Amino acid sequence: METYFKKSIREARLLDHTDGFKEKTIPVEIRTDLLLEITARVLQFRRKLPKMSYDALLIEKSKKTCPFCPERLDTSTPKFAPSLSAKGRMGHGQAMVLPNAFPYSRYSGVVIFSEDHYIPLDEFTPKIVLDSLIASTIYINQVRKADPNVTYASINWNYMPPSGSGIIHPHLQVVVNQRPTRFHQKVITASLNYQKNRRKNYWSDLISWEKRHQVRYLFHKGTVVFLVSFCPRGMFGEVLSIFQSKNLLQQIDEEEWCYFAKGLSRILKCFHHLNFDSLNMTLLASLTKEEDCWVQARIIPRSSLPPWSTSDVNYFEKGHDEMIVILSPEDLADEIRKSA
Fold this sequence. Notes:
alpha+beta, about 350 residues, 14 strands, globular
């Protein structure tokens, strides 16, 4: 992994106005994941962890017009065409699937976790998470039956407004495509190139290396591994979860979904403990092609920055395609291990 994980330090020099204008050196750490061609700048001197900021009154106010709450669900949300679902809806346990009223793709579904309008991160039990995951796979399988040409799927989550969510009520978004998204294609291509050049599976090598060094490795639940990414795509880091030896979504059985649900529930509790009150999650999966790319999910904590509720995304991310990171991956791994 040392070949693919590149780290360098650059020093900025200035005359510090807070210390009699004495010369001061500030390190800037630049990390690159050469496999996925991701670059991040770790600026630990900017570190300021968020504080919980959600107003109970605002959450209650949003409930009055929420389309996903039971009293409005039937009249404020669309239904599937009969070709996809005879009842117009589908689901599992507490979770319900319906069409995305603002679709991202031809096949774009929304999975509502439960009837509860607001669920704090530390109250997403493995059962709540598992129901939503199984419901997601039910939708994906129905799409596959209706359209055998689809080959890729993703299960996505924007939790609370800092993540880009426009609705408080917890929900997943499932997208099924004939082609992978840009980042999914990058992961697939990189995995194939690694296999071709080294005759090994990159994700197996990554897990072995991280487990051996115990720097960013977190834990495993059954065959599902959780670790912190060396080069994250979020200001506060990124947790990577890998389904070992699973190249296709349909190879994952209910027991393995249960492993993932338990691990994800544990990560959410840790985020809550660290005052991260928002997140993005994306689970990437192939449906028909075994491409040496194991099914995997990336969970990125999100938050507005105090004291002005500033966005955690700025010109470096949007204009330069490089992440600014203020909590190093190793520190995030330590915090998660301590809070578990």
